[in-house]
Design a protein that fits this description.
The protein is α+β, with helices and mostly antiparallel strands. The chain is 33% helix and 21% strand. It has three domains: 135 residues, 3-Layer(aba) Sandwich (Creatine Amidinohydrolase, Chain A, domain 1), CATH 3.40.350.10; 146 residues, Creatinase/prolidase N-terminal domain (Creatine Amidinohydrolase, Chain A, domain 1, 3-Layer(aba) Sandwich), CATH 3.40.350; 285 residues, Alpha-Beta Complex (Creatine Amidinohydrolase). Helix 4 runs parallel beside helix 5, helix 13 packs across helix 14 and helix 15 packs antiparallel against helix 16.
């Protein structure tokens, strides 16, 4: 029997033949440049079977290839087996990106088809630059003719958040955006990124799994706010209608989602002479809609100011994040206590379900912030392991278990990884566990001058590993939203060059790791808040405050590998965890945590 994905690739090729296309490029995104698309736009998983968060697919008459990075190499090799799709590795030496790979084919004036709704302006230009003689056709919903029973655009209940939770009203945020428009002499800005819209309007939904977003577009001008959000198949619910009423009272016009194309084509008639867009997030179909009107406005491409505003948390958000990590830490400690007392009677899936159950008991819990990675032994060697629902491996009283998870709460978002020794471990597991923890501590204790970018301090987390010729392939840190996406920019901590400075109020992860295929994986992750450390004659200084509250297991450490400063940090952190959390744990749990957090020397 043919592989289902091999058959789907052939259906794509037949579509190409019918339409006169030489190449089809499918991205893993959606019309809003989302990291996690809704089911309707999971084109790459549908066509290839690859379910990783980052993957793009290219189909020609004789070749089908999937491009993804080192987090997913092992997963991709397994999921692509039998499909005829070749893995193309990215972010490795000698990697060939898709535009350059297409150029290398040497086709004469190829016709390249992309989904205009899921291909951003910037990506399209990179492709055109690499293959200048190509004719690129932007086809919205390109797979719809062959995708049977394609999911519809989701529409979930919408809520609003008050100043007591987010610290700033939507009126103030929109006023700041209009001030920015006026300073730059723009009449309007068109925003398609869902996290930016959610932050600006103080709205949340659940249109995308694990992300409290509402699929929509937003047009903000100097005298109007238009939110394109109402779906045709939306069921009216009281919560959503109350939210719409509140938004309308604040001057937000609530419009159908599918009216956005018409509105963009009539900007000039609405008094918009100069509009700005962000080419890194706007899809090509919407960009072309701006150019479809009879009288066209002047279009300026610039980076939206919203991501940086959103990334710098205000005091209310910071206190909310502290509360989220307190509650989440209690759930984590109760889970780890349960885990120790139930192995070997549980599987990876059982453990993930129990952790989810404990989080769900927290008032204000709105779901997980991503799919829990519950991985034992060899499974943990895949940084983005997918825990199987059936037939999941049983945990045993030996080796290392890794759990990477997080929660969405009305008052914040969490992301934490703990690697747990379940019994005797090998000498290599002890070494890896220790070197990764050294890297985590060395970054957590960093002091750096104002203006420093995350890429400039990434090496602090890698140096202990590099000294022993070990490394990891993913970034060391990502930004985290406030009851928004668990991954957000513009800041990060990774080797890739990013000039965005780390600013006071930004929240990042600190998560070095190491992965040995077929053996084990180690990752230690906390979230940290960028804070001011004071000024002197040499400048202004910044550092990190650790927000996450959950002990690091010290039972499998090679203590002699730690410096005295690292020992002191670890002892102080574990003591802080105990003193903060133990009063709200049961007596048995508190006594267990006391033993887990004893000073190591």
């Amino acid at each position: 029997m043919d592989n289902i994905f091999s058959a789907r690739i052939e259906r794509i090729r037949q579509l190409m033949l019918d339409e006169g296309w030489d190449i089809v490029v499918l991205t893993g995104g959606d019309p809003h440049a989302s990291e996690y698309p809704a089911d309707r736009w999971k084109q790459v998983p549908w066509a290839s079977g690859f379910t990783g968060e980052a993957g793009d697919l290219v189909v020609t008459a004789s070749h089908a290839g999937l491009w993804t990075d080192s987090r997913y190499f092992i997963q991709a090799q397994r999921q692509l087996e039998g499909s005829g799709i070749e893995l193309h590795k990215t972010r490795v030496p000698a990697a060939v990106p898709i535009p350059e790979w297409i150029a290398s084919l040497g086709m004469d004036s190829p016709v390249i088809a992309v989904d205009g709704l899921c291909f951003c302006v910037e990506a399209l230009r990179n492709l055109q630059k690499a293959v200048p003689d190509a004719r690129i056709e932007t086809v919205p919903d390109i797979l719809s003719p062959i995708w049977d029973a394609r999911p519809s655009i989701p529409s979930t209940p919408i809520i609003t958040l008050g100043e007591d939770l987010v610290g700033q009203s939507r009126e103030k945020k929109i006023h700041s955006l209009r001030k920015w428009l006026a300073i730059n002499q723009y009449d309007a800005i068109f925003i398609s990124a869902l996290d930016e819209i959610a932050w600006l309007l103080n709205v949340r939904g659940s249109d995308i799994e694990y992300n409290p977003f509402v699929i929509s577009y937003l047009l903000v001008s100097l005298d109007a706010v238009k939110w394109f959000v109402v779906k045709e198949d939306a069921e009216s619910d009281e919560e959503t209608q109350d939210s719409f009423d509140e938004l309308r009272a604040d001057g937000v016009e609530v419009l159908p989602y599918d009216e956005v194309e018409f509105s963009l084509a009539s900007l000039k008639m609405d008094g918009v002479d100069r509009i700005c867009i962000d080419p890194s997030t706007l899809n090509t179909f919407m960009r072309e809609s701006v150019d479809d009107g009879d009288i066209l406005p002047e279009v300026f491409e610039t980076q939206s100011p919203v991501p940086q505003w959103k990334a710098v948390k205000n005091e209310v958000e910071i206190e909310g994040m502290r509360e989220a990590h307190l509650e989440d830490g209690l759930a984590m400690e109760r889970f780890l206590y349960w885990l120790e007392n139930n192995v070997p009677e549980v599987s990876e899936w059982d453990a993930a379900c129990e952790l989810g159950r404990l989080r769900s008991e927290i008032e204000g819990y709105r779901g997980d912030s991503f799919e829990t990675i519950s991985a034992y032994g060899p499974g943990a060697a895949l940084p983005h392991y997918i825990t199987p629902r059936s037939g999941a491996p049983l945990l045993k009283r030996r080796g290392l278990y890794l759990v990477d998870s997080g929660g969405q709460y009305l008052f914040g978002t969490t992301d934490i990884t703990r690697t747990v020794p379940l019994g005797p471990v090998t000498a290599l597991e002890r070494e890896d566990y220790t070197f990764v923890l050294k890297g985590h501590i060395d970054l957590a204790t960093a002091v750096f001058p104002r203006g420093t970018a995350g890429c400039q301090i990434d090496a602090l987390a890698r140096e202990p590993l590099w000294k022993t010729k070990r490394n990891f392939g993913h970034g060391t840190g990502h930004g985290v939203g406030f009851f928004l996406g668990v991954h957000e920019g513009p800041q990060d901590i990774r080797q890739n060059f990013n000039s965005q400075p780390l600013l006071p109020g930004m929240i990042c992860s600190d998560e070095p790791g190491i992965y040995r295929e077929g053996m084990h994986g180690v990752r230690h992750e906390n979230l940290v808040l960028v804070k001011e450390l004071g000024d002197n004659e040499f400048g202004s200084w910044l550092g990190f405050e650790t927000l996450t509250l959950c002990h690091f297991d010290t039972s499998c450490l090679e203590i002699e590998l730690l410096t005295q400063d690292e020992v002191e940090w670890l002892n102080a952190y574990n003591e802080r965890v105990y003193r903060t959390l133990s009063p709200r744990l049961s007596s048995a749990q508190a006594a267990w945590l006391r033993e887990k957090t004893r000073p190591i020397r």
